[in-house]
Each structure stands twice: as C-alpha cells, then as structure tokens.
Amino acid sequence: MTRTRTLLLAASLLAGSPALAESTLTIATVNNGDMVVMQKLSSAFEKAHPDIKLRWVVLEENVLRQRVTTDIATRAGQFDVLTIGNYEVPIWARQNWLEPMDGLPADYDAGDILKTVREGVSRDGKLYALPFYGESAMTYYRKDLFDKAGLTMPAAPTYDEIKSFAAKLTDKASQTYGLCLRGKPGWGENMAYVTTLVDTFGGQWFGEGWKTTIDTPEWKNALTYYTDVLKNYGPPGATSNGFNENLALFASGRCAIWIDSTVAAGLLYDPKQSQVADKVAFAPMPTGSFKGGPTWLWSWNLGIPASSKQKDAAKTFVAWATSKAYVEMVAKENGWVAVPPGTRESTYKSPDYQKAAPFAGFVLKAIDSANPNGQTRNPRPYTGAQFVAIPEFQGIGTQVGQTVAATLTGQQTIDAALKAAQSATERTMRQAGYPK
Amino acid sequence: MVKQSLPKRIGIAVLGWGAAFVLFFPLLWMLLTSLKSEPEAVNPSLTFTPTLQSYGEVLARADYLSFALNSVIISVGGTVLALALAIPAAYVMAFHPTKRTRSTLLWMLSTKMLPSVGVLVPIYLLFRTLGLLDTRFGLIVVYTLMNLPIVVWMLFTFFKEVPHDILEAGRMDGARTGAEVWHLLLPLTLPGVASTGLLSLILCWNEAFWSLNLTSSAAAPLTAFIASFSSPQGLFFAKLSAASTVAVAPILVFGWLSQRQLVRGLTFGAVK
Description:
heterodimer; A: alpha/beta; D-Maltodextrin-Binding Protein, domain 2; 5-stranded mixed sheet; 18 helices; 13 strands; B: MetI-like fold; 0% strand
C-alpha cells in the first residue's frame, strides 16, 4: 500500500508540469538592470489584471536568441513575450514571426516614442515591437584627470584630439589608461564600435549593389587608428574587453576616456557600482573625417511571437511595460535616474529626469541624430547604425570581429586582416544570394 | 606492500595535493568571487572585504527552491530510470552474451559521439508534438537516454567481475532470473551499482545544454538558474558566482558524503 502511494506520488511529481491557466504569459528576457526592475514591478501588473499571470524566463542573450528562433521556427509557442533588439525586429517582421502592434490602448501615445527608435522597430509604417529602453553612444571621461593635466574636453571632440588626450593621460605605472574601447570579438561587441569608427572615417560595410567595401583605405585608416590607440594607451589584454569589462575598468578608475553605449551613464553615476561616480563627465562621440557619423542606435524591445497562443493578454502586458505610466512608476519606486532611458520624449521633457540624470540631454541628442536608415559618406543598400540589418550580419560581424581582434594582438597585419575579412564577407554574401 | 622511501612519499604527497589544488581551484575562485562586490569581482585581487550581498540579491531575484526541486526530481528520476533499464541490459550482456553483444555495446557508445546540438531540432519538434516541452518528465527521458550508454557500460564491466558459479549456485537452489539479479548480483556489485548511480546523478545535475533548450520555467533546473544571472549590459560576475555556488553546493555536499562509496565503486574489481 505504501509502495503504491509512493509510486503515485513519484508519478505526480514526474508529470509535474502544471496545467496552464488560459492567461499565463511566459516572458523571455535578459538579465539587464532595467529588466530586473520590470520583473520586480510586474506584481503591480498582476494586481491590476487578476486574470493574467506572468512567468519569467531569464536567459543569457545568445541563448535567448537561439531559444526564441527555434521556438518561432518550429511554432512551438513556448513564449508569449520576447525581449529582442532592433537588429532582429525588422528581420523577424519580414518573416512574419512577430505580431504587429496595432490596436494599442488609446492612452498609449505611440507618437511619444522617439522617432529614430520607433523607426527602428517598424516595417511599412507598422510597429512590430514596443521599445523598452534605447541607447546610443557617447564619450565618458574623468573630469579630475583632465583638470589635473590641464586639459579641457571640447564640446564636439575629434578622434585626433581624443588621441592626444589619451597620450597625455596614460600612466601605465599607476594602471591608468588613456583610452578604453571594446576589443572582444563579436558582432555586438567590438564590431559595434568599429562600425561607428569606420563610419566616421568615411567607410562602410557595403556599397551600392551590395559590393563589399572592407578592403578600402577608409577601413585601413580606422583600424590603424584603433590598433594604435589601444596598443599604446589602452589597457592590457584589450581583446577580452567587451562592454561589461570596460564598464568595470572605468568604474574602478582605470580608464581616462571610454567611448561606449549611453546605457553606461546610469551605472557610472551610481555610487554603489562606480568608484568614479562624482568624477565622470561626458561628451558626444568623437568624429573623424566624415562629420555625418558616427551613429549608434540600439533598443531592447518587447515583441510578441506569431506563435503565441495568448496574443491579447501579451499585448496588454507589453503596452503596460512600455507605457508612460510605467516610467512614472519606476521613478516613484526607484528614483528618476533609474527609469528606462531612450524611448519616450515625455521622459526627457520631465524636469525631474533632467535634474536626476545630467546626461539626459546628450543621450537624447545622440539618439535623435542616430538615423538608422543611412548615415554613411556614400550611399548604401542596408539599414542599421552600428550593425547591418541583414540576417547574415551576425556571422559576418563575428568573423570580421575576430580578424580585427587578431590585428590588436599582432597576430595579423591590418592589410592582411582587411584582405581576409573582405574575401570572407564576399563569399558569405555570394552564398546568401546578394544582391537580392 | 613495499615501504617507499621518504623523499618518494613526500614527492607523491606534493603531487597529489598539487593535482587536488588545480582541480579545486576553479571552485575556490568561484567562491571567492561570490563574496566580492560587483566592481571588485572583475579585479583578480585577493584583498577585499567579504560580503554576502550577492547571495542576498540572487536569492531575492529568483525562486531557488523551485529550481533546486526540479534539479533533484529530474536527476533522481533520470538516474533511477537509467538504472532500471540498464541493469537488465547489462545482466544479459554479461551473463548471456551472444555474438552480437560486443558490437551492440560499441554501437551504444557510438550514440554518445554525436554532438547534442545535431539532434536538437528533431528532439525539439518531437517534444513539441508530444507536449513534453518544459516538463520534468521530458527532461528525465532525455537524461536517461543521454546517460544510458555509460550506465550500461559501467554496469557491464562490474557484472563481468562476478563469477558465473555464484549465480549458477543460486539457480541450482531454484532462484529465477529476477531473484538471481535482486538477491545475488546486485548485493555483490552494490558498490559498483552505487557509483554508477552517483555518476549518472552528477551528470544529470550538471547537464546544461538540454535543460536550457527544452525547459523555460515550470521544469527549469538549477543550470537555468545559473544562466539567468549572466548579463549583456551590467556587471554580474559576483552574482553569477553566488548563483553557481548555491547551485553546486547540494551535489558537492552529496558527493563528499558519498565519496567513500564512489571511490570504492570506481576501483572495484581492481584490487580484489
């Protein structure tokens, strides 16, 4: 008898997946600060919508991408809300993988979403995801070190000026490095930065007719600059530094200048995470010979996969998490400096936000000027600011990123690297059938 | 046993401790990192003020117990099922071999040579159709199949050590096959069976590929719990280390308690 009962108990434990109520939403997200806040505050949503329960799946960024693509491609319907970047949104929308975001509540005010961010998640004038937070890039620098050396950061720095500052501020004996930049290979790591650098040096990934334009003087100038400054004034082992590593270096006082995503501003200003909270200042991204660039635009968005079985409930949640009311709620709970940046004009108009986040104006200007539809010296067939919005770019970007990293470690000369990158990219593009 | 000279004994001791330290070092580093604050965690320095802050945040963010319960159920379930299938299989192969036994054993092992990701899409589709995605039962099935070749092989080698005469004596006294296995074979090879079970348990506990791909929330084990603390934007080393520490702690303690059994089982047969 007891044995039967034990077996029954075991069987019920094994069968363990509980029957899902009609309105349990599974939300796939990444472990970024703003998403953690959303998860925490979501109990307010559940209280306001007693018929909708939320389940969170927090995954590493690349695992999330892989899981979600498998799920959508096989129409398994495991997820109802996805966290995706503006790189994926247009590509997935084209494949009909995402539910269009129409029929939003009247007070949602989609017109309040920053224009460039809104365009980044639209296709044919329709929204396919709603932006949760957005970012551009800017220059962070240490005011105290600049003052001590008698230097002043100009209102619109150039890359030549940055180089001379970096040279003067590097003090390897005290482990202070003039300039920190991304060096870790990856399409979303070093190549995000290198793409903007090439852009402002007058280069681009592809020319008209999808002609690969990597083995060009513009790329060579950009990479020469990049390897030169990082080797001479950068931290040791730069090829293992991505966003997070540089953030840690700057926050612990090792970098005098750092050029990276605007999302770092909130973290560097937080005295709990940063030892330089009272010493950090900022400037726009430096420019090179082409003054129309560089541009950087990234947003994390909430989308609904076409395979979801509870699209209406999912839409209710997505609209809630990206609404003005949500921004105000975060402000009330965690303070204005913690609100998700880079999505709504109303956030930037708020005097409270301007007071709490002195970097707000820079971020807004950088995002506003980051035209995702084309801002290179020569015409181009693709969209995307610090990436190329085609499915092949993940592979291409990561491969070229590894070649670029090899020039930093000295394993490869710049000429050889560009040649290799050019031919590998040409091959991939030919196999993918471009020009389409 | 020949008594070894003192220098030789010291040499062996140093080598043993050295190897143990190298093997243990990643765990030690993880533990140290988990006690640092986030900005300190990036720095390899050993001077820091220990804090339990990361543990607090990790346990507040996610429901550790539900992940741990899933891990326990899935690992134990997978191990019990694998043993239940492998004991009869290994018995037959060890005591009633045919001319194909050897190639069957090799074929079983060859299934381990295919990279898991190669069968991800077929399994995913199968699971979707059968409604096994994000269920504990689904993972138990996958883990059972994943470990079955190793479990059968280990049991087979342990069973091979048992003299046929003993089982034959049992048969003379009227024991049927079931009783023969239950009352004679298993008690004789208990250390071996136990260590096989322990190994399977540890493999299940640590498996990450399938658990990350086939579960989302209801059946997610501790590997998914760890993975959720990596962040594309923001410092996470300390929190990730804290999450890993609390995730490996149960199996570490378990392994430590069953250490004698494990070592005895693994060297079983060699020193009889």
